[in-house]
Fold each of these.
Amino acid sequence: MKKFFKVLYQSKKTHLSAGRSKARLGEIKTAHGVIKTPAFVPVGTKGTIKSLTPSFLKEIKTQVAFVNTYHLVTHPGVEIIKKAGGINKYSGLNIPLMSDSGGFQVFSLARKNKGSRLVFSSISPPSQRLQKQALSLSQEENVLFEKQPALVKISDDGVKFRSTFDGSIIEFTPEKSMEYQRKIGADINMAFDECIPYGVNYQYAKEATERTHRWLKRCIKEIQNSKIKSQNDKSKFKILKIKNNQFLYGIIQGGVFEDLRKKSAEFVVSQPTDGVAIGGVSVGESKKEMRDQVRWVSPYLPEDKPVHLLGVGQIDDILDLVGYGIDTFDCVEPTRLARMGTIIKLKVKSEKLKVEGEKVDILKGVYRADLSPVNEDCSCFVCQNFSKSYLHHLFKTKELLAYTLATYHNLWVMEKLFEEIREMIGKDLI
Ligand SMILES: [Zn+2]
């Protein structure tokens, strides 16, 4: 295996306020292909980018996608995925994949339960609507979720809950999360962390951040132990080569508190992981607070490891965040908007160093008879072949193709945006 991450070019731009730009061009090498960074990572929660076949992703030139461990553990279960040869083979996606730790979902679930007060005493519980959003449950799952509180036990060790699918008990601890992710087999794995909800006090954020640090050490240890075990198995069965193509990212937490964020960045960057992610952002805070949390840790980010920002990818934020040193972004927005009939239009103003995303609601009555292309400035398959009227008609009549066409276009736009960003870095514009 060649080097996992390589910086190809470091921007020479200097910002008056923030000093030297940390924007860079890089390459992440995985067993399923190379990711040119900065890159956008669309979310394929259950092992599919909703409504797109893998061949569409090839056309769009999607470089990498994100899958959610919690969802795959509850269905179809990691043993089936492992038996199939890993999520890439199982899903036919055949591109580099990242998986999360499951922490975000299981802790949202845990907070719903009153028993969680034992551990999360200082939390002001978020509204049920916010919790549901955080869990991204389907309509059907929501019904089950409300009927039977799924949580069984929460401790400093992790969370135990009952599956909404078959009632079986599922446990998430740092070790379990690593084991699940190993079996799922995505190229890049996230350490088990506690995503700190917005609005908690300093003491809570401090304890949760320290817990996340202890868990990172346990994740690293679990991986080391599993390697020793596989080496022993190797000598036992005389297997020639151990396959170790999975890479671990540690996650920086700290909430909205500057000193906690900085301490967390220092700790996580000092650990022997392959990459670093910033978590607990975009959880209900303002845009300014979200950017601050990334800006604070920017000076601490590693030069020789890739940096991922979890759950952020709104077009108007990305340029600044790339300047703070972020290499990859996962975000549900472009695909979620597409399913609601919202088409993203990109306006790149390189000379002003600005990228704007305009959102067009194709369901508006004005598009019913509009035979112009979905987006005049776009060269994607959808915009070359279909009119606004046709897409409007598909959405209005709830035809399945509507979701495919809108998702195709929105992800194409995100790829174009990142191509543009990589060019801008090459010219020292970011
Ligand atoms: Zn298009």
Amino acid sequence: MNGENRQYPLFCSRCFKLGQVYLLGHPILPPFPGLLSISDDEFKHFQQLIYKASGIHLPATKKMLVVSRLSKRVRHHGLDSLQHYYQFITHAHHADEFQIMVDLLTTNETYFFREPEHFSQLKQLLPDYPREHPFQAWSAACSSGEEGYSMAMTLMELFGTGRAWSVLGTDISARMLHIARNAVYPINATEHIPKNYLSQYCLKGVRSQAGTFRIEKKLRDRVKFQQLNLNAPHIPHLPHFDLILLRNVLIYFDIPTKRQLIHKMIDQLRPGGYLLIGHAENLSSLSTPEIHAQLSSVAPTVYRKKLSTSGG
Ligand SMILES: C[S@@+](CC[C@H](N)C(=O)[O-])C[C@H]1O[C@@H](n2cnc3c(N)ncnc32)[C@H](O)[C@@H]1O
């Protein structure tokens, strides 16, 4: 038994019949003493800044969210207003604080096997997928990693270790990627993980790690994480993917940004590869003749890059 297993013995299926209740949840911001105010113009400055940095469109209804999430940072730096905080983060020397602001203003909600139909659909679709090259999946807005590890559990079941496959998770949020790489989650996050996967790929924390579980090393080794802004003018060099999960992120972008992003995703897909978007999202409002010519719809929110298109 290695050191990791001593700390995280494997889950046994019996533990999960008990339906235990845990108080731990996803990281939340601690409460802070008082809120600052923000004028419409100041809000617009933050709106433009986050749009330029990430493509995220913050509607006016998110004004209080900006105030509540950033007030603590204003105080942390001994500043007295959001206007001064804006000047602070836009100064070239404060790139670290700029990243913290981006982290605070993104919405990172996620959980294991979110929208489970996608994983069932992939189990139907992927056994027929060409096997002559390593299978590469991309969780393109992976948040804290649950989506990438859910995909990895599914691929391990489908392909095992006999076939080369890997998952790349990327996100704009450095804070979320840190959680993803650690692969330690509160125990209540096991709620949606199928029991057979729990016993195979999850290690229950004991002693100082009680109340948590960790994704097992054989799965962690298949999943890599990298910081990436999907709306940066140029996506850094990435391989072509057989499967891209672009789920629950389009919703934060305006139509031109969504359209550009779908074009980028098509470029990153191998011909015959699959693109999945969130169930609350759709491509119909975006459909340009190019998108239509290159993607076919397999099921609602599941698309496939046509084999006859170039690139890949
Ligand atoms: C709501 S979460 C979705 C997570 C996961 N895909 C899911 O469906 O559960 C949206 C994620 O998109 C990320 N995000 C937002 N804008 C981004 C951008 N421009 N580039 C990369 N990631 C971005 C956020 O940091 C956040 O983690």
Amino acid sequence: MRAVVQNDKSRAWVAKADDRGRARVAKADDRGRARVAKTDDRSRARIAKTAAATTALALAALLTGCAGDPAPAPAQGGPARPLDPRARQAAEHARLAAAARRWGLERTPLTPPAPPAEKPRITPRDGFEVDGQEEENLPPVFTTVPTRQKVVFLTIDDGAEKDPAFLRMMSELKVPYTAFLSNYVIEDDYGYFRRMQAQGVTLNNHTLTHPYLPGLSYEEQRDEICGMQTVMKKQFGKAPTVFRPPYGNYNGDTLRAAKECGIKYAPIWDEEVFVDHWEYRDWDRRLHPGDIVLTHFRGRDDWNGTMVDDMRNFLDKVTREGYAVARLEDYL
Ligand SMILES: [Zn+2]
């Protein structure tokens, strides 16, 4: 019951933020004056601003609830007109910039390109295939999605830490990510992950109990993977098609069992980010277009910081190096 209430609250919060973001900007006259009008659900007050140059700042101030100009003047000249695309973009950028400052980021995360019209063909990373890979059409294990776009994909594993601030941060910053969940650490609070799912995050399979899969028989591996499929279908409404073997360890039986459980992809990762450092699979110790980045749902119990600190470490480097964070499922 508690989870449902929190879920509703969180949705209400998102809806309210959206309403606030639905500010409207209309070009006023040929002298370049802009009029900014904002419709508020409660007061229906309209605010007009005259200087085009201050539009973005004014919007940012409105959206953070710290407007320096407290006296909204009644708008003149009828109802606000629809926002033109450039103004809409500026308003959204101002909102994101304000959120980035609030969460202590060095700079505003970059907006990812539109999802590819044609999905890339995903093949196993060289050396990561198993016997029978192609003949049996087994799920590919890969660390990077083939793309030339400067995007990386954020994946977060296990599910031990359930930090509400993390959910707020990611939703305010609109950073997409994918969660790989293991039942033994999420079963005490499925509601947290339902809230995550309601924010558009895809929840994927990371086994029931997080074992070292190659040490298990085929049947045992199948029980771990199919068992988690059943849990996820029951708790989250659908069985995933994406699975990550614990520790990134697998053998032929793992991929065969995964396929039997309905899995199509087995992404692992090229970089791993922690609160205070990064680790790299490749010798060049760099991000590459399409890289999959791993981190974990961990907090102060395990790490020298929170999920929010971890995300700051992730986003600051990614943005500094000119990468946007894209949604993995958009490329699969
Ligand atoms: Zn794990």
